[in-house]
């Protein structure tokens, strides 16, 4: 399962190798982009599988970015009550984040990823060579999730990104292989201890409370996912500073790494009301206190379960007004 | 989640009790019958849940027969990646079979239950009092699955059905409670040892290889599920006898119990070709040998993985031609 854009870049080579190993390999194409991650595409995938005479012992191979991984994985989770699948992610974001952990889903009119499942891939096959064809902004977007992994789980990964930023941005294969491996390892360790997100797994949502709300409030048109998470981390750093939950030198260091990666689209002009409504409607929202992830130290994360909503709302008002400049 | 037919019979009382315990309990109605177990109904359920502001901590209560349990359970398996649900089955078949074991699914144009999941209910709440409103044929249909449970796992349950048949058919509460408890226990024990049907769970499919094919070949219009399974068991008994896999006294005893329960709709006139095509297209079918369940003794089941297809096809030809009369 792939799309024509990915297939045009890397499909022939991959398919040739697959056919040599497995014989006939039927290809199902889906549309390119988040708006195709819906139930129409899903039923198109099922139909394609029936046409190809797939049965319970068939495998799905998801070849593409996060959208393809999510919907192909969900098809694998539900076709004949679950068949095996392999993720072959082709974006940095998918290699370090969405391909790991078994969260698969489709979007519905009420929101993103609101219908889905937990279904672990049998294998994740990340070839960093394919990343060299990524647009710069797409690469940076994935790198913010690498920084998030470092922030919550590995100070040494953060240090590596600081020191090797130009090699990463110029797609030096060894450097990319290192950050993909480390980020995947950190995420896989967290997921292995809490697959269904009963508690620990929430630390992977560092920067995502505000990040998701920014995406929703701008109808997913303004920010790439990683960019929204980058802004969400900057907000979490600022809010954490206000609450005295993060040291000022560490706050400055983390914000510095994020800002050095690339120039983020501005958050100026975003309505606080829209942002706040999106935030409280998130499926992670718990009435009463809001859950947020904070960093007692870089590389170590804690979940706060009872963040005062009015406190956070006030902070976000100032944050948006100052366009994210909070003086550190 | 229920339908208007079930709700009219038992809804007020149940809802009153639920509201006393939980406050507001939104009700989602779906159509009555297998043809509503599709993705249109599924998305109607999701929409109803969003309208009711359901979130990850919400529960689904499936109140009805197997169709409601299957689709409501599948909605629970996939809504926000899985929420908890309770089965409150209102048919004997659902109480002894479909509510136990976590198999949930919808139908697609290509076949029944071909999109689904494994998602265990938090509770199964079987009230045998509701069974007294069942049509006779529906009650008998469930009883065939009880006989199947006895045949594969408990000779004493078979004996109980033999001895208490008239009390069962007149819905004596204590008698029904015994067979529901025993059948559920047998199924739950098998599922606990092999949830995903890698091997052992297949013994629950005793009588289902031919049973499913009969349902498909008659477009689900002629037989109730239990009736098709009853014919499937009679076929398995006959075929098992031919292969010398079942003692003749035990074959006669099991066939006798099945025939005493009720008069089955005739299998005369069913096309062998249609029956055979349905059988080999079943998702349980494995190319090469066919898997079937046989009984070395009543109460004990074995899976044969390499039944010769041409042998089985010949047997079925004679079976259909003789309208299921095989001389024992």
Rounded to an integer in angstroms, the radius of gyration calculated over CA atoms of chain A is 20 Å
The quaternary state of the protein chains shown equals homodimer
Major sheet details of chain A: 3 strands, parallel
Low-pLDDT segments, ≥5 res of chain A: none
Please trace the helix and strand order of chain A, writing H or E for each element: HHEHEHEEEHHHHHHHHEEH
Distance between termini of chain A? 45 Å
According to DSSP, the number of beta strands of chain A is: 7
Give the averaged pLDDT of chain A, no decimals: 94
Strand order of the largest sheet of chain A: 1-2-5
Globular, elongated, flat, extended or rod-shaped: what is the shape of chain A? globular
The helix tally of chain A amounts to 13
Percent of residues in beta strands of chain A? 5-15%
Task: Name the chain pair whose interface involves the most residues.
Answer: A-B, 26 and 26 residues
User: How would you classify the helix and strand content of chain A by structural class?
Assistant: alpha/beta
**Helical residue percent of chain A?**
40-55%
